[in-house]
From TrEMBL:
Protein name per the record: Redoxin family protein
InterPro entries linked: Redoxin, Thioredoxin-like_sf, Thioredoxin_CS, Thioredoxin_domain, Thioredoxin_ResA/DsbE_sf
Pfam families referenced in this protein's UniProt entry, alphabetically: Redoxin
Origin superkingdom: Bacteria
Length: 168
């Protein structure tokens, strides 16, 4: 009983804690740096390979229930609007096999990468997850969204359309 109360207190404290910048974080309005990304199930790529088209980056972990909860809506968003922007996932798991098991359960088709060295996590500012980052075609961070969302809801799709300046 005592351990569960301590765990609950820590969870609530972490949730209520103010957000601090991560080392090397690119803030909204800044441009993402080039970064190699180790593929999960697909080949490795450079972050810059996704320039030229708006990008939605979702940062997740296998131990994060809200991360799994929003994956279905990200998949639907990717399938419906994938011609207008890219969607990628970044796992911050330490163990690729755990990340792979999460992806098997999530059943997504967009590319996922793993960040075991914290480079992407820090650059994106993922001091809490899930984090979704909207990036323009030139690599500029437009908006960061913390917490799980229904990414294919009409309101969210409209916000994405406005952020990217797209017709959808």
């Amino acid at each position: 009983m005592k351990k569960s109360l301590v765990f609950l207190a820590l969870c609530l404290a972490a949730f209520a804690a103010p957000a601090f910048a991560t080392p090397g974080e690119v803030p909204e309005g800044g441009t993402l740096r080039e970064m190699p990304m180790q593929g999960l199930g697909a080949g490795s790529r450079l972050l810059g390979d996704f320039r030229g088209k708006p990008l939605i980056i979702n940062v997740w972990a296998s131990y994060c229930p809200p991360c799994l909860a929003e994956m279905g809506s990200l998949e639907r968003l990717s399938k419906r609007y994938g011609k207008q922007f890219n969607v990628i996932g970044i796992s911050i798991d330490d163990y690729p096999e755990r990340a792979q098991a999460f992806l098997t359960q999530a059943k997504t088709s967009f590319p996922h990468f793993i960040d075991r060295q914290l480079a992407l996590e820090n650059m994106l500012g993922a001091n809490r997850i899930p984090l979704t980052v909207l990036v323009d075609a030139d690599g500029k961070v437009l908006h960061k969204v913390f917490g799980a969302k229904e990414w294919d809801s009409p309101e969210t799709v409209e916000a994405i359309r406005k952020a990217f300046g797209l017709r959808m």
